[in-house]
Amino acid sequence: MASLQNQEWKNKSSDCCTPMSSCCLAWWCPCISYGRTHHRVKFDDDMKGYSCCNFSCVAYTSLTCLGLSFVLPMIQRGNMREKYHLKGNGCNDFLCACCCAPCDLLQQDKESKFREDEKTSLTSAQPGNSSQMQYQQQ
């Protein structure tokens, strides 16, 4: 069985000002940004049941109070690399999460949305077995 080739990240971490609503969320309420991305990655973009006040958000806030805000985004980045077959390594995950957390959170948010939308469009574009072949009588 052939393994999938690791791909580049579609969204660069340096592109952290668009969209503005997500940018503001990542800078001013990073726990919500983290929780939203975590939910999307874990449940395949099914935002049903999502609430901005969830365990992921509380865990992120708790670790932030202890000065460890980089831990969960670093782990999530690794999970995203594995799930979406993205290039990178643990050292890169650590540096991205530590050096500019809001930029990293925004990159993860945009990347997960892009990958899930891409997966949904590929799945829905598959031909279905909606009708069976009809034969005319002779």
TrEMBL record:
Answer whether the UniProt record assigns the keyword Transmembrane helix to this protein. yes
Alphabetized UniProt keyword annotations: Membrane, Transmembrane, Transmembrane helix
- Is Transmembrane a UniProt keyword of this protein? yes
Quote the biased-composition stretches of kind Polar residues, using this chain's numbering: 121-138
* Region span, Disordered: 114-138
Going by the entry's taxonomy, the superkingdom of the source organism is recorded as: Eukaryota
Where exactly are the transmembrane stretches of this chain? 58-75
Which InterPro entries is this protein grouped with?
PLAC_motif_containing (IPR006461)
- The protein, known as: PLAC8-domain-containing protein
